[in-house]
């Protein structure tokens, strides 16, 4: 009785503010550890299965979740940790007749968003920091600095723009971010990039919207609702490692939510909804590692792992030991004999696997703290095959030039890349000055799509398919002019500058090793993010830096100064002139001293003329 | 029998006290209006009040938190994801589960007044709305830079005391509050509550007109002042309050006397109907829930059986993923059909001119050859 009372109070106090997330499993996953709670998951699963199954565990559930953590030591001494949580649910959100009402592992707030706005695919990411491809290699899940949102709507939607506007507002409430600043001035409709990552055949780009907010800050208030979407919350499994004080004290932090329809099974006859939550973080050797080349879970996250999420069907930690086949580079403890190889980003890599669902992984102390101790010096990193940079050239506050450099480091293969540039309207691009040069020769793109901007309505959109020659640098330059904004359009801190979102470069890079095109469920999550259709190349997306451009800023104290000056001139100049012209002078008798006044009074009485 | 009468009297006063305040839910609107790193203390002020209010029971869904700039994840912060209130870095008021509703450029006078009056665009999410009713006690806390009769928002606009008073009157007329506690920690803060004229408002300010509110102490590692004096002593006072505390408003008026605060805190209670002595601190800062214990059994209906769905016939051919970069398809992509617009006035005028000139030169008889 008291437990129920405490329960209810705890549930009330801990309810999520950014749109309520009701999960029947929340009550069972609270972890008070009593017998009633242990049988909770079994009861919940019995309720959601098809009738006729009874309380048996033999019937497969319509939803399942997996979690994994990939730890990759980088050549510069930093360490890269990538969390992926995937929930698969066999249901139909877009079915017109029957509304989905029973949610178990899939968060209700996102499910309602999908059905209300007829969303086919949703990708949202929040990133702090910039991914340094030359030092760290390619990321598992790429993301640009700031916030990025791209959505494919279902082809039954009549008003895509209206749905988009409402969707951004709802998401800003769910993720505590200012996504409501996404409007027509920063939304574009790419015509060839951002093809759907999920199943489907028709790809009419009228149903795609892409927007990015490079200025968006990521902090604990974005992590809190993100953690609440996980089936186990931050109470069990890998998510206990997510402490904001450590996660944000890093060189790179990115959290994302990806929702798409995927194959339900290897036959791929029907679709299931997949929700992937990814969190990528790169810890710096000097700020988090105190300069010592020794990394452990406790040093990175100030926590160790104690158990897997009870609701997850698989919970694994992968450590990349490809550079350490004989153990000569670093020592990994506790040692494990389970090795797994996977082809990731065109390279065959070996991983030590720790399965958290097995009790033996946790050892005597019932906690897992992976320690990597460096012994030798690592060699040079393999140069990434594709990488890009962008910068603004020029001087002054009137004109400038945007340079985008795309590097193809493959020794003998050329491959095409698709470059997407979205520039705000206040930088007026002169497309007649657009030049694409590779190896000092002009390189004509095979496809150009340009949509000019409209002041205060639409940004510039430039998409080009460029063939990159092997071992070369391709430079794309375009000149622009800076516009003067209306004084109410300036932000409260205009001298900081205005951001231009990252360029997106999508490419099919030739792979060193044959890619695995077999879409079975047994692959680790980090190798199945981008679907692979052919063996000889893999798809990669590279984001450039966002640009920070200074616009000519007026002096905002001008109205006050003008009023003061004008009033002074009017009062002093015109006023004195007017007075001189219209003033009349009257002679005034000076007041007489008292004695004289008295004498005058006596004289008046006597009738004698006054003094 | 005297004992009986005495007991009866005691129980009735306790019962009336229990139901005295007349409110059923609590809301809080906490606003920091300053931008830039050197205004760290204003964010720390608001977060301390947020922390106290959450600790005393108001849930995140009933708190509208507006922070004009991000200090915790600011690149100048030597300890990211933390905001400290005391120079020994003892108390991280940012915490691990903060939820900020309005942040950065969204904190404007317009948004603040819209939140108060409830006149928000229809697509605003629930977490950004103040969904109070006529039985809500609302705590409004403002901090930032202010002057005689105004409060500066983000260095670019300001809200005047008249506007604020009118907003509260709108709230009263729309029955959006039962009682309102207004606390302001700015320079010359007392000027902001001078113009209130709606009933049931109690106001506190950190300084009188003509006085400046001063900051407490700087931290040498972080490099800025961490908190304002009034809110510092207010936080110290609130840390001693627990959800069942009986401390009343008179104790709150005594927080931070002139010896500690250098400025003279002021308060205004003439618009408030109840005696401040009988108003509990937790009436505004806490959310004490009145729980009714029942001994009857409640009959829950059994979970409705899920109707057996006709298994979907598997589609004839397997679905496949879309090609991410179909080069051939892209190169041969047909250009997007541009929407047809009727010809511009200029084009029409030009064609009319050309036709007129043609017929003028060659005569009207050629017209029949055209039509």
UniProtKB/TrEMBL annotation, chain A:
> What keywords were assigned to this record?
Signal
Q: Which GO terms describe its cellular component?
A: GPI-anchor transamidase complex
Region (Disordered) location: 22-59
Annotated InterPro entries: PIG-T
What spans are recorded as compositionally biased (Low complexity)? 39-49
Q: Does the keyword DNA repair apply?
A: no
List, in alphabetical order, the GO biological process terms annotated in this UniProt record: attachment of GPI anchor to protein
Cleaved signal peptide residues:
1-18
Q: What is this protein called?
A: Phosphatidylinositol glycan anchor biosynthesis, class T
Species whose genome carries this gene: Pygocentrus nattereri (Red-bellied piranha)
Gene that this polypeptide is encoded by: PIGT
UniProtKB/TrEMBL annotation, chain B:
InterPro entries tied to this protein: GPI_transamidase, Peptidase_C13
Molecular functions per Gene Ontology: GPI-anchor transamidase activity
Q: What is this protein called?
A: GPI-anchor transamidase
Q: Which UniProt keywords apply?
A: GPI-anchor biosynthesis, Membrane, Signal, Transmembrane, Transmembrane helix
List the GO terms this entry assigns under cellular component, sorted alphabetically: GPI-anchor transamidase complex
Q: Which Gene3D superfamilies match?
A: 3.40.50.1460
**Any idea which residues are catalytic in this one?**
145, 187
Give the residue spans that cross the bilayer. 345-363
Q: Which family does it belong to?
A: Belongs to the peptidase C13 family.
